[in-house]
Every structure is written in structure tokens, then in C-alpha cells.
Amino acid sequence: QICNQHNAEAPNLEQVFHRMAQTEPNLDHDVSWFLLPSYWAKMVVALISFLCFANSYDGDFVFDDSEAIINNKDLRAETPLGDLWHHDFWGSKLSSNTSHKSYRPLTVLTFRINYLFAGGFYPVGFHVINIILHCTISVLMVDVFSILLGGLQFSNKGRRLNLAPKTSLLAALLFAVHPVHTECVAGIVGRADLLCALFFLLSFLGYCKAFRENKEGHNFSIFWVLVSVILGAVAMLCKEQGITILGLNAVFDALVINKLNILDLVQKLLHKDKSLENAGLLRKGLLFRITLLMSGGASILYIRWRIMGTGPPAFTEVDNPASFADSLFVRAINYNYYYSLNAWLLLCPWWLCFDWSMGCIPLIKSVSDWRIIALAALWFCLIGLICQALCSEDSHKRRILTLGLGFLIIPFLPASNLFFRVGFVIAERVIYLPSIGYCILFTYGFSLLSKQAKKKKILAVAVLGILLINVMRCALRSSQWRSEEQLFRSALSVCPLNAKVHYNVGKNLADKGNQSAAIKYYREAVRLNPKYVHAMNNLGNILKERNELQEAEELLSLAVQIQPDFAAAWMNLGIVQNSLRRFEEAEQSYWTAIKHRKKYPDCYYNLGRLYADLNRHIDALNAWRNATVLKPEHSLAWNNMIILLDNTGNLAQAEAVGREALGLIPNDHSLMFSLANVLGKSQKYKESEALFLKAIKANPNAASYHGNLAVLYHRWGNLDLAKKHYEVSLKLDPMAPGTKENYNLLRRKLEQLQKKGG
After folding, report:
1. Among 167, 192, 220, 312, which has the minimal tally of Cβ within 10 Å of its Cβ?
2. Sequential DSSP letters for 612-632
3. Total domains present in the chain
4. DSSP 3-state assignment of 87?
5. Is the CB of residue 446 less than 8 Å from the CB of residue 154?
6. pLDDT category of residue 2 using cuts at 50, 70 and 90
7. pLDDT tens digits for 716-747?
8. Which residue, 650, 684, 718, sits at the end of a domain?
9. 238 and 199 in contact (C-beta within 8 Å)?
10. What is the pTM of this model?
């Protein structure tokens, strides 16, 4: 559908574009840079962007990948696809009070496709898709920058002209190799930003197509405007920032298509000038298109608001301390300081960190803080650029600076804390899109310097040096994102005051079994943040395992005092109290944990162990049954039920439970072993033998498996096989309880049989 709305006095678009091409200055004229055909320029950008991040292809799942991918049930085939539209990015229900309200179903869908094609959680496929997405986006940036820097112009055949091939290539290269993008590309969770950016750019390019000359000679195509709105909605379904493209399309329309002078327009509005129509406000359907964009954006936001629910996301003070400050002055000062740090990351992306929260950036609480200088520098630069963008007599300069500032600021607004509280202090991933504006301003500044410089080649070499340094920085940073150990340790020098950094280093060490080193980092995390309950919980766990029960109890008691609904800490406190033989307190702690987390199978399992120690067998069996109902694959709970029923002489019931458990977890060798013992006592020797052999095949180095199979053969009368498995058991564990005595009994019996036979 083509719109017929145009002013009868307005010139033909082809004439307008032809005159623009002749009269506007060309950025490329004074720039000493590579001039390549469009195809080769895109190939170069794709290759260099690939080289920057190629070494991340075989990295592990790191940091947030665990929650968004490994622990996200929405990736698994058994979860209905429809659930993706009612869950947040992390797999929680949007209606839940604990949901972060990050609604990105299309991103989760791509994770699910990755998972299905790979046949499990294999990170290579996830990483490869991220690298391909960044390369694709970088290639699209060549077209986007050619429009933003050179203007939107078409040939007589309707083909878009690239009037800034050199500067658009430079800007695209700057974007492709910017080290701040590493988190988005090398971190799999960054796919949300990559997909959002892809559809963001497609929406912009689609909007530009609305103004392509067509056979009927009309001004614009409603079809492409609507396509642009739909692509903006798709971008938002990948990540929230995507909706901002609709605002940028409106800005682009006003500045490039209608060539509005914003300052002149404001002055005429203030003076109620009757020549507003001649100012271009109504020419070429601008108001109609902006109405379409605004209506589409409002509809998208309303639908998302209805899906998300009216409640805001739940964040804590450690996530974003400035947003919890009582003083409006403190909040405003710190928000602006965060903006200056984001700007610095774009200018000098050398100090990069996976997490900037929890003490990494202390709050500014007074004007005497020297960091106020950063705010002053930021606003000095911004005000200078805004003045030039509004007041310059050079329309070309006004257009480029306004577009640069628009692409820098507008996509950043959802992360600015201005409209709602966000769950971070600084996040490198959220400046993936704003870096487009930075690249425009950098390239324009380079063109101005080139115009003034006598030795243009030296300036070009300097810029080439910046690109090469950024390529090396990207490669280095990508290698740090390959494993959690490297990633977390790289942050220690950047954010030594960040308690979460020390916590994550400690957790990584604990997972690898290095408890002594882990304790050191957990203690430092608690020292930096005395209210860091997760660090207290993990430290208490390690101390519990090392039998340092007194300190473990103190830490866990403090954790639940600070956060009374911390279910995991209540459960761990119960385990410690049980070890200290304070059974009543332990039982109370377990039930408090279950009160705060209704579906807590591990807590029911530990409660069952407590009841078993107290000989409350019925209560123990009920607790373990609850654990298996909540988590059918809870092997320990099934095993304990079988063993308790076996020990209390309820062999028929033990057999029934064992068969039920193996039906749910058919490959669990410990369940095979427990059921085999029960069947042996019930004199079902053949079936017992089969299960023992199957368990041994799955775990051949378990001494008890061989020892109990030997006992079965001993009872059954297969003495030679009994002797063989006793010997294997003793070889694996010479101190195995009872095995040596049984073996000696068997040997004496064999000797007696030999004497009789002799």
C-alpha cells in the first residue's frame, strides 16, 4: 500500500535527492582512508569482526549462562512452547514476585533451538551463533552508517546510493572491533542484545526503504513503515531496548527526510509562526508517519505491560545502590556518574568487568568527592555537542551530530534509571546499541580533523592503530570469557572492592575442590559486604564440611537474621544443628526453610535424615516421599527409603519402592545395588544377581558392590564366584567392613570341601 498524502507544492522526491547530492558536503572528501566497493567493504568488516571473537567459540557456559540456559526449564523439550510467552528470560513466571520481568521470549526460543540441535548443553553451538550474529550486525552497520553519515539517496532505478563509502567503512570497523561488545558476543546471555540489535537495524533499514522512489512516483510506502514497526516489536521481544528504534526512526524522518531545523522549528512554535507548514512539519506525511510509529510503539508497550503485569521487577540494594538512596541529590549525582563511566567505557574500553555492582563503584555522597569532575566533563561535552547540533549553520553538521547523539542516548534510556529502576550499576552489554552513536561521532570528528590536518596519512595511521589495539583487546577479553576462572580473576584488578567478584572466585574454587582457597575469597567477600548472605551461606557450608561447626553456625545464623526468608541458609543451619545434636532446633530450621520455599526436595531429604537418626521411621519415610514427589529423580531420597525399609524388615515394601525408583531413574547404579540387596534377602537370587552385575558394569570400582554380590553368591552356593568377587572387593578396599571376615569364612568352607573331596 502506497500513501498518497503529499503537499501539492512539495517538489518531487527525485529532484529533492538530486539537489541534496549536489549541495551537501561529502564527509569522504577530506578523509584519508580505504575506498572499497560495497561488497569488499562488507567482507572486510565480517572477517575482522570474526577474528576479534573467534577464540570464544569453544568457551564454557559462564556467569549468567548457568541461570539463563543450564537451569532454565524453558529450553527443554518437555516444557510446552507456550510457556515461553508467560515466563521471563530466566524461566520464572512473569507473575512471580521474584521475577525480574525481563521478557525476551524470542531470545529464549533461539536458546531452545540451540539445545535441541546440539542434543544437550554443549556450549560450542551457542557461541558460534553469537559470533555469526555479531558478524552479521557489523556487516549491516556498513549500510546503516552510509545512510547516517552520507544521507538517504536513491538512483533513478530506486537503488540506494552510498555517498560515504570511506567513512561508513571506518565507522563499521570501529563498531565491529569495540572491546565493550565482548560481553555480548563471548557471553551466551549476550545473545539478547545481539538479536535485539539485528532487528533494531533491520527496522531502521526497512523504514528507509519506505522512501525509495517507485513507479507511481509517490512519496512513501505505508507497507515499509508498518514493517519497520513490526521489526521494532520483534527487537523488543529479544530485549527491551529494541522499542527505542521507533523513536530513532521518527528522529531520522524529521532530520533526513524532512530536513527540519529543530531550533528554527522551536522558535516558530514559541512565536506561533503561521509559516510552520512551510517549515516542513506537514510535508511528505511526516505527522502521519510519526503517528503510525507512536501508535505502534504505544500498542507494543501496552501489550508487554499486560503480559508482564503491573508490578515492577524486584531488585535489591546491592544490585543498584544509588536507586535506593533516600536523597534525590545523591541519586541524581550517582546516576550521572554512572553515565560518565559508560561514556568512558566507549572512549577507553580497557578496564572491563563482568559485574560492576556490590561496592565496585562506591556512592558519591557529597560535592567534595573528586569524582564530580567526571560528571562535569560529561555534561561539558554533551552540552557542547547539543549546541553544535542545534545551532550550527551547517545543516550537514547539524544532521550528523543530532543523529549521533540520538543513537548514543535514545537506546540507552531504558538502562538510565530515569523511567524505572534497573538491576545493575553498569552493564557493558547495554551499550552495544549506544556504541552506534559513539562510532558516528568518532568518525565525524575524524573527518573534521582530516579536513584541518596537513598530514592526513599520519592521522589515518593513528586511527588504524586504534583499530588494531581494539582487535587485540577483543581477542584478549574473549579469551577471559572462555572460562569462569579466567573471567572472575580478570575482575579482581578492575573491581577489587566488588564483593561479588571475590564471591564468584571463591565459588569457582570450591566447585573445583580447593576449599582452603575458596574460604579466603568468601571471607573477603563478607568483609567487603557484611550483609552478603550468599557468601555467608557458602562459607558456612565449607566450614560445616570441615567440621568447624561453631563458626558455621554463627555465619548461617547471621545470614538468616539478615534475610529471614533465605531458605537455603535455614536448611544448612539445620544440617549444622543436627551435627551438633541439637535436634529440636534442627527440625525447626528445616521447617522454616520449607515455609519459605514450599517446593524444597533437598530440605525434605535432610529432614528425613534427622527423623531417621531419631528413630522416627514413619516421619522419615514421609519426608523422603515428599522429596521424591517434588523431585522424582532424587536418588538419595529413594535410596534411603529402600535402606530404611530393608533395615526394618519390610522387604516387600522395600522391593516395591526400589522398583518404583528404578522405573523413574533406570540407570542409577546405587538404586540397582540397594534393590539387589533386598531381592537377595528375599531369595530372588537370579534377579538380584542381574542387578548387581548391572550396577558393577556402571560402577566397576565400588568395593561394596563386589562384596555384596560375593555374599549373594555365598548364600546361593556359587562359592567360586563368591571367592572371585570377595577378592576383587578386598583389592579395591582392603579395609571394607565385613568383607575380610566373610572371605575367611568362605576360604575355610572351601578348604573343608576340598578335604572331604580328597
Report:
1. 312
2. HHTT-HHHHHHHHHHHHHH-T
3. 4
4. strand
5. no
6. very low
7. 888 888 889 988 988 988 887 788 888 888 88
8. 684
9. yes
10. 0.85
